[in-house]
Amino acid sequence: MATYDYVIVGGGTAGSVIASRLTEDPGVRVAVIEGGPSDMDRPEVLTLRRWLGLLGGELDYDYPTTEQPRGNSHIRHSRARVLGGCSSHNTLISFKPLPSDWDEWEEAGARGWNAETMDPYFGKLRNNIVAVDEKDRNAIARDFVEAATAALGVPRVEGFNKAPFTEGAGFFDLSYHPENNKRSSASVAYLHPHMKAGDRPNLDLFLETWAYRLELDGNRATGVHVRTADGTERLISAEREVLVCAGAVDTPRLLLHSGIGPARDLEALGIPVALDLPGVGENLLDHPESVIVWETDGPIPENSAMDSDAGLFVRRDETAPGPDLMFHFYQIPFTDNPERIGYEKPEHGVSMTPNIPKPHSRGRLFLTSADPAVKPALDFRYFTDEDDYDARTLVDGIRLAREVARAEPLAKWLKREVCPGPEVTSDEELSAYARQVAHTVYHPAGTCRMGAADDGLAVVDPELRVRGLAGIRIADASVFPTMPTVNPMLGVLMVGEKAADLLRSDGSSGKSPDTTPHSTTALGGVA
């Protein structure tokens, strides 16, 4: 048995931040449990433009979706099995959450998480957050930006993080090093310097080690049961706190297999109930999007940072605090789902993906077996909102995308619309197509949401402590009360920075860690 001050489950986006920050104090001993291998010296991981090759591979937990009667039942949710988590797996699009996103959290009961409080954490991030480099600005992506501003009357934005915005087209900010296309992931920015220098003897990384159950002593979390790559099982104990940073899928999964969750569901599976916490697994959020594909009149120039370097935001409702429709512009024909229903992939093409920044549908994650090795069920309940807002947003998106495609200078590149095709024009047809080929941009969140004391479905309090337990907090996208308008990675990094401050504050004040309900459960690795 090994004992540390803090045990962090998950060496991903938030876990990397917390581990680095806590071990700045040489007297604090920290263990990080990560289910995957190191990303050091792995060019297929560290090279940003190779992200697409990671999906569905050996470094992906690859979670299926339950049947979606109004959506696409074939969606696979990639979750990274490697140090750095999904920041080692994704496109590293880097948006500071909008002020309205943080303020919405506070309104939902996350006291102390408003924009004024959270904004300084953006400045603390160690990632190399820069605009797409000039050499990576593909000619067709440049023309997309010009066409979008001309067709829709939105401003051109240079630097989406410079000021809050409601609409605009432009190149994204990315967390990368343009000179060599290397990621500036959470692991690269927060852990690699210590791994290379060997300057943190108080930090131990347990790689390819799977956390499958929390150790509880009454109402206190005291450690984590893990299984190593060779099958050895051991207990890693925490004298102060366990931090669960395993993400919106594996954090609730770990809680549930530890007997923390809806009692009725746990009892039905024969899992002993340690704490009846009904909100675990509820409030499953995502950013669903659909796709329109055009064949181009010949090949596209090869330069790019990661093949989706520019985008567009639109605000249809002038009363909304931020954008209510987003588009990624892919410099590739993204036809995985359309091909399944009979469309053919063109040899050369581009795609626009209308995305729902603030979806109204909510889903649920739940277990189907008491065996921790069995993947949980993810029922996103896509397009089930009563007012049909989500589906209507995608229909509007397809129509706006067509306006952009008709505008110069983009129009000169495009030979024909492949999917859904110019003959698909009615709202009903567009909705059916958009929902059938909908996909995810891998933003699951909300399954252990933060909230006020009187919120019966809140899993953590505003100090990130699991309600009804001591010695445990959660810090990852699962605590999001609502979905940020923008890509959430920087939001998760900022959650990690704030979590580290909360922990250090409790430690320096001499508080007994977690005397009120808290929890931090992060599953670093999941079979």
UniProtKB/TrEMBL annotation:
Which amino acid positions bind FAD, per UniProt?
A: V82
Going by the UniProt record, its keywords in alphabetical order are:
FAD, Flavoprotein
Source organism of this protein record: Streptomyces armeniacus
Required co-factors: FAD
Can you say what this protein is called? Oxidoreductase
MF terms from GO for this chain are:
flavin adenine dinucleotide binding; oxidoreductase activity, acting on CH-OH group of donors
Q: Give all residue intervals belonging to the Glucose-methanol-choline oxidoreductase N-terminal domain.
A: 247-261
Q: Where is the composition biased (Polar residues)?
A: 506-527
Please report a single Pfam family linked to this protein: GMC_oxred_N
Record's family? Belongs to the GMC oxidoreductase family.
PROSITE patterns to which the protein is assigned, alphabetical: GMC_OXRED_2 (PS00624)
InterPro entries given in the database record:
FAD/NAD-bd_sf, GMC_OxRdtase, GMC_OxRdtase_N, GMC_OxRtase_C
Where is the stretch described as Disordered?
504-527
- PANTHER family attached here? GLUCOSE-METHANOL-CHOLINE GMC OXIDOREDUCTASE (PTHR11552), OXIDASE (CODA), PUTATIVE (AFU_ORTHOLOGUE AFUA_8G04090)-RELATED (PTHR11552:SF152)
